[in-house]
Protein backbone atom coordinates (compact mmCIF):
# COMPACT_ATOMS: atom_id res chain seq x y z
CA UNK A 1 0.00 0.00 0.00
CA UNK A 2 1.43 3.34 -1.11
CA UNK A 3 0.99 6.32 1.25
CA UNK A 4 0.40 9.84 -0.01
CA UNK A 5 0.71 13.29 1.53
CA UNK A 6 -2.29 15.58 0.99
CA UNK A 7 -1.28 19.21 0.55
CA UNK A 8 -4.45 21.02 1.67
CA UNK A 9 -3.13 21.48 5.21
CA UNK A 10 0.01 23.18 3.84
CA UNK A 11 -1.87 26.06 2.19
CA UNK A 12 -0.19 28.63 4.48
CA UNK A 13 3.24 27.18 3.70
CA UNK A 14 5.24 27.25 0.47
CA UNK A 15 4.36 24.40 -1.86
CA UNK A 16 7.97 23.25 -1.76
CA UNK A 17 7.51 22.29 1.92
CA UNK A 18 5.08 19.58 0.78
CA UNK A 19 7.68 17.99 -1.48
CA UNK A 20 10.48 18.36 1.07
CA UNK A 21 8.36 16.73 3.76
CA UNK A 22 6.98 13.95 1.57
CA UNK A 23 10.58 13.03 0.78
CA UNK A 24 12.04 13.25 4.28
CA UNK A 25 9.10 11.63 6.10
CA UNK A 26 8.91 8.63 3.77
CA UNK A 27 5.70 9.25 1.83
CA UNK A 28 5.43 7.52 -1.55
CA UNK A 29 3.63 10.27 -3.46
CA UNK A 30 1.73 13.54 -3.21
CA UNK A 31 -2.00 14.14 -3.68
CA UNK A 32 -2.00 17.78 -4.75
CA UNK A 33 -4.83 20.04 -3.57
CA UNK A 34 -5.86 22.24 -6.47
CA UNK A 35 -6.48 25.71 -5.09
CA UNK A 36 -4.67 28.95 -4.44
CA UNK A 37 -2.00 29.69 -3.46
CA UNK A 38 -0.42 26.44 -4.69
CA UNK A 39 -2.06 24.66 -7.60
CA UNK A 40 -5.19 26.40 -8.88
CA UNK A 41 -5.71 25.09 -12.41
CA UNK A 42 -5.95 28.49 -14.18
CA UNK A 43 -2.69 29.50 -12.48
CA UNK A 44 -1.09 26.23 -13.56
CA UNK A 45 -2.19 26.87 -17.14
CA UNK A 46 -0.66 30.35 -16.96
CA UNK A 47 2.75 28.92 -16.14
CA UNK A 48 2.73 27.62 -12.57
CA UNK A 49 2.67 24.04 -13.87
CA UNK A 50 6.39 24.44 -14.52
CA UNK A 51 7.04 24.95 -10.80
CA UNK A 52 5.08 21.81 -9.93
CA UNK A 53 7.04 19.82 -12.50
CA UNK A 54 10.32 21.27 -11.17
CA UNK A 55 9.47 20.15 -7.63
CA UNK A 56 8.47 16.69 -8.81
CA UNK A 57 11.82 16.29 -10.53
CA UNK A 58 13.93 17.91 -7.79
CA UNK A 59 12.56 15.78 -4.97
CA UNK A 60 11.82 12.67 -7.05
CA UNK A 61 8.32 12.76 -5.59
CA UNK A 62 5.44 12.05 -8.01
CA UNK A 63 2.05 13.71 -7.88
CA UNK A 64 -0.15 10.63 -8.21
CA UNK A 65 -3.44 12.46 -7.62
CA UNK A 66 -4.76 15.96 -8.26
CA UNK A 67 -7.74 17.06 -6.12
CA UNK A 68 -9.16 20.40 -7.22
CA UNK A 69 -11.24 22.43 -4.78
CA UNK A 70 -14.80 22.32 -6.09
CA UNK A 71 -17.23 21.67 -3.24
CA UNK A 72 -17.99 25.26 -2.35
CA UNK A 73 -17.52 28.77 -3.68
CA UNK A 74 -17.17 29.36 -6.58
CA UNK A 75 -17.49 25.84 -8.05
CA UNK A 76 -20.10 23.20 -7.23
CA UNK A 77 -21.44 21.31 -10.21
CA UNK A 78 -24.43 20.02 -8.22
CA UNK A 79 -26.19 23.34 -7.53
CA UNK A 80 -27.20 26.51 -9.35
CA UNK A 81 -28.11 27.34 -12.92
CA UNK A 82 -27.10 25.40 -16.02
CA UNK A 83 -24.54 28.06 -16.87
CA UNK A 84 -23.03 27.62 -13.40
CA UNK A 85 -22.89 23.86 -13.92
CA UNK A 86 -21.22 24.31 -17.29
CA UNK A 87 -18.69 26.69 -15.76
CA UNK A 88 -17.82 24.08 -13.10
CA UNK A 89 -17.51 21.37 -15.77
CA UNK A 90 -15.18 23.49 -17.89
CA UNK A 91 -13.10 24.24 -14.79
CA UNK A 92 -12.81 20.53 -13.97
CA UNK A 93 -11.90 19.69 -17.57
CA UNK A 94 -9.04 22.17 -17.25
CA UNK A 95 -8.04 20.40 -14.04
CA UNK A 96 -7.90 17.11 -15.95
CA UNK A 97 -5.65 18.76 -18.52
CA UNK A 98 -3.33 20.01 -15.78
CA UNK A 99 -3.36 16.60 -14.06
CA UNK A 100 -2.10 15.11 -17.31
CA UNK A 101 0.67 17.72 -17.63
CA UNK A 102 2.00 16.99 -14.14
CA UNK A 103 1.95 13.25 -14.76
CA UNK A 104 -0.86 12.45 -12.32
CA UNK A 105 -2.59 9.10 -12.54
CA UNK A 106 -5.98 10.39 -11.37
CA UNK A 107 -8.08 13.45 -10.59
CA UNK A 108 -10.55 13.33 -7.73
CA UNK A 109 -14.09 14.74 -7.72
CA UNK A 110 -16.72 14.63 -4.98
CA UNK A 111 -20.33 15.58 -5.74
CA UNK A 112 -21.23 18.28 -3.23
CA UNK A 113 -24.53 19.47 -1.77
CA UNK A 114 -27.38 19.88 -4.25
CA UNK A 115 -29.45 22.22 -2.12
CA UNK A 116 -32.44 21.52 0.06
CA UNK A 117 -35.07 21.51 -2.69
CA UNK A 118 -33.43 19.05 -5.09
CA UNK A 119 -35.22 15.72 -5.55
CA UNK A 120 -33.49 12.36 -6.09
CA UNK A 121 -34.41 12.42 -9.78
CA UNK A 122 -32.96 15.90 -10.19
CA UNK A 123 -29.81 15.00 -8.25
CA UNK A 124 -29.09 11.84 -10.23
CA UNK A 125 -29.92 13.40 -13.57
CA UNK A 126 -27.54 16.32 -13.02
CA UNK A 127 -24.81 14.21 -11.44
CA UNK A 128 -24.88 11.53 -14.14
CA UNK A 129 -24.81 14.08 -16.95
CA UNK A 130 -21.90 15.94 -15.35
CA UNK A 131 -19.79 12.92 -14.50
CA UNK A 132 -20.35 11.47 -17.97
CA UNK A 133 -19.02 14.70 -19.51
CA UNK A 134 -16.00 14.61 -17.22
CA UNK A 135 -15.42 10.91 -17.90
CA UNK A 136 -15.44 11.56 -21.64
CA UNK A 137 -12.74 14.20 -21.14
CA UNK A 138 -10.78 11.91 -18.81
CA UNK A 139 -10.72 9.29 -21.57
CA UNK A 140 -9.37 11.86 -24.03
CA UNK A 141 -6.51 13.00 -21.79
CA UNK A 142 -5.78 9.59 -20.26
CA UNK A 143 -6.31 10.45 -16.58
CA UNK A 144 -8.66 8.44 -14.37
CA UNK A 145 -11.59 10.23 -12.76
CA UNK A 146 -11.84 9.10 -9.12
CA UNK A 147 -15.22 9.81 -7.49
CA UNK A 148 -15.40 10.26 -3.71
CA UNK A 149 -18.42 9.82 -1.46
CA UNK A 150 -18.89 12.47 1.23
CA UNK A 151 -20.53 12.51 4.66
CA UNK A 152 -24.15 13.63 5.14
CA UNK A 153 -22.72 16.66 6.95
CA UNK A 154 -21.13 17.73 3.66
CA UNK A 155 -23.47 16.53 0.93
CA UNK A 156 -26.97 15.23 0.23
CA UNK A 157 -25.85 13.88 -3.14
CA UNK A 158 -23.37 11.01 -3.03
CA UNK A 159 -22.62 9.33 0.29
CA UNK A 160 -22.40 5.52 0.19
CA UNK A 161 -21.07 2.39 -1.48
CA UNK A 162 -24.53 1.80 -2.94
CA UNK A 163 -24.32 5.19 -4.62
CA UNK A 164 -21.20 3.93 -6.40
CA UNK A 165 -23.04 0.79 -7.52
CA UNK A 166 -25.75 2.95 -9.06
CA UNK A 167 -23.25 5.34 -10.65
CA UNK A 168 -21.32 2.57 -12.35
CA UNK A 169 -24.56 1.17 -13.76
CA UNK A 170 -25.17 4.55 -15.39
CA UNK A 171 -21.63 5.29 -16.61
CA UNK A 172 -19.58 2.44 -18.04
CA UNK A 173 -15.96 3.42 -18.60
CA UNK A 174 -12.58 2.25 -17.29
CA UNK A 175 -11.76 5.92 -16.71
CA UNK A 176 -14.31 6.46 -13.92
CA UNK A 177 -13.52 4.65 -10.67
CA UNK A 178 -14.32 4.88 -6.97
CA UNK A 179 -12.59 5.36 -3.65
CA UNK A 180 -13.30 5.35 0.07
CA UNK A 181 -12.58 8.12 2.52
CA UNK A 182 -12.86 6.28 5.84
CA UNK A 183 -14.90 8.96 7.61
CA UNK A 184 -18.16 8.86 5.53
CA UNK A 185 -18.91 5.17 6.06
CA UNK A 186 -17.78 5.30 9.69
CA UNK A 187 -20.10 8.16 10.72
CA UNK A 188 -23.02 6.56 8.84
CA UNK A 189 -22.51 3.13 10.47
CA UNK A 190 -21.71 1.67 7.06
CA UNK A 191 -19.12 -1.06 6.56
CA UNK A 192 -15.84 0.27 5.21
CA UNK A 193 -14.82 -3.13 3.85
CA UNK A 194 -18.15 -3.37 2.01
CA UNK A 195 -16.76 -0.79 -0.40
CA UNK A 196 -14.27 -3.41 -1.60
CA UNK A 197 -16.99 -6.03 -1.98
CA UNK A 198 -19.46 -3.77 -3.79
CA UNK A 199 -17.04 -1.81 -5.98
CA UNK A 200 -14.76 -4.72 -6.85
CA UNK A 201 -12.20 -3.70 -9.47
CA UNK A 202 -13.61 -0.16 -9.39
CA UNK A 203 -12.27 0.33 -5.84
CA UNK A 204 -9.22 2.40 -6.74
CA UNK A 205 -8.07 4.67 -3.91
CA UNK A 206 -8.32 5.40 -0.16
CA UNK A 207 -8.22 8.40 2.11
CA UNK A 208 -6.84 7.11 5.40
CA UNK A 209 -7.77 9.22 8.40
CA UNK A 210 -9.38 8.84 11.81
CA UNK A 211 -12.77 10.16 12.87
CA UNK A 212 -15.44 10.45 15.54
CA UNK A 213 -19.17 9.84 15.48
CA UNK A 214 -21.35 12.90 14.97
CA UNK A 215 -18.88 14.97 12.95
CA UNK A 216 -17.06 14.98 9.64
CA UNK A 217 -13.80 15.94 11.36
CA UNK A 218 -10.66 14.32 9.97
CA UNK A 219 -8.48 13.37 12.92
CA UNK A 220 -4.86 12.24 13.19
CA UNK A 221 -4.63 8.48 12.47
CA UNK A 222 -4.67 6.61 15.76
CA UNK A 223 -6.20 9.46 17.76
CA UNK A 224 -9.90 9.07 16.91
CA UNK A 225 -12.56 6.41 17.34
CA UNK A 226 -12.01 4.36 14.17
CA UNK A 227 -10.65 0.82 14.61
CA UNK A 228 -7.81 1.82 12.32
CA UNK A 229 -5.26 -0.82 13.30
CA UNK A 230 -7.78 -3.58 12.68
CA UNK A 231 -8.83 -1.97 9.40
CA UNK A 232 -5.25 -1.98 8.14
CA UNK A 233 -5.03 -5.64 9.11
CA UNK A 234 -8.10 -6.27 6.95
CA UNK A 235 -6.51 -4.36 4.06
CA UNK A 236 -3.48 -6.60 4.37
CA UNK A 237 -5.75 -9.65 4.48
CA UNK A 238 -7.29 -8.74 1.11
CA UNK A 239 -3.84 -7.77 -0.21
CA UNK A 240 -4.75 -4.15 -0.99
CA UNK A 241 -1.77 -2.67 -2.82
CA UNK A 242 -3.29 0.55 -4.12
CA UNK A 243 -2.84 4.16 -3.05
CA UNK A 244 -3.89 5.56 0.32
CA UNK A 245 -3.55 9.27 0.96
CA UNK A 246 -3.34 10.37 4.59
CA UNK A 247 -5.89 13.17 4.42
CA UNK A 248 -4.93 15.67 7.06
CA UNK A 249 -6.79 18.86 6.23
CA UNK A 250 -7.20 22.24 7.92
CA UNK A 251 -7.52 21.00 11.52
CA UNK A 252 -3.71 20.75 11.51
CA UNK A 253 -2.97 23.86 9.46
CA UNK A 254 -0.98 25.54 12.24
CA UNK A 255 1.80 22.93 12.14
CA UNK A 256 1.31 20.80 9.04
CA UNK A 257 4.92 19.64 8.94
CA UNK A 258 4.92 18.22 12.46
CA UNK A 259 1.55 16.54 12.00
CA UNK A 260 2.44 15.13 8.58
CA UNK A 261 5.42 13.43 10.21
CA UNK A 262 3.32 12.04 13.07
CA UNK A 263 0.58 10.84 10.69
CA UNK A 264 2.82 8.79 8.42
CA UNK A 265 4.75 7.38 11.37
CA UNK A 266 1.48 6.27 12.98
CA UNK A 267 0.22 4.61 9.80
CA UNK A 268 3.57 2.97 9.01
CA UNK A 269 3.62 1.46 12.50
CA UNK A 270 0.12 0.08 12.00
CA UNK A 271 1.12 -1.33 8.62
CA UNK A 272 4.16 -3.01 10.17
CA UNK A 273 1.99 -4.62 12.83
CA UNK A 274 -0.39 -5.80 10.09
CA UNK A 275 2.48 -7.42 8.20
CA UNK A 276 2.72 -4.95 5.30
Q: What would a concise description of this structure say?
A:
The chain is an alpha/beta fold and 276 residues long. 44% of the residues lie in helices and 15% in strands. The protein has a single domain (2-274), classed as Divalent-metal-dependent TIM barrel enzymes (TIM Barrel, Alpha-Beta Barrel), CATH 3.20.20.150.
What do you see in this structure?
With 276 residues, the protein is of the alpha/beta class. It has one domain (2-274): TIM Barrel, CATH 3.20.20. The protein is 44% helix and 15% strand. It has 9 helices and 8 strands. It has helices at residues 15-25, 41-59, 82-101, 120-141, 161-170, 183-187, 194-199, 228-237, 256-274; strands spanning 2-6, 29-34, 63-68, 106-109, 144-147, 176-181, 203-208, 243-246. It has an 8-stranded parallel barrel, surrounded by 5 helices. Helix 8 links the parallel strand 7 and strand 8 (243-246). The longest helix is centred in the middle third of the chain and has 22 residues, at 120-141. The mean pLDDT is 96. Pfam families: AP_endonuc_2 (PF01261).
Low-confidence stretches: none
Q: What does the average pLDDT come to?
A: 96
> Separation of termini?
8 Å
> How is the CATH topology named?
TIM Barrel
* CATH H-level superfamily: Divalent-metal-dependent TIM barrel enzymes
Structural class: alpha/beta
Protein name: Protein FrlC
InterPro entries: IolE/XylAMocC-like, Xyl_isomerase-like_sf, Xyl_isomerase-like_TIM-brl
Pfam families: AP_endonuc_2
Domain Xylose isomerase-like TIM barrel: 21-258
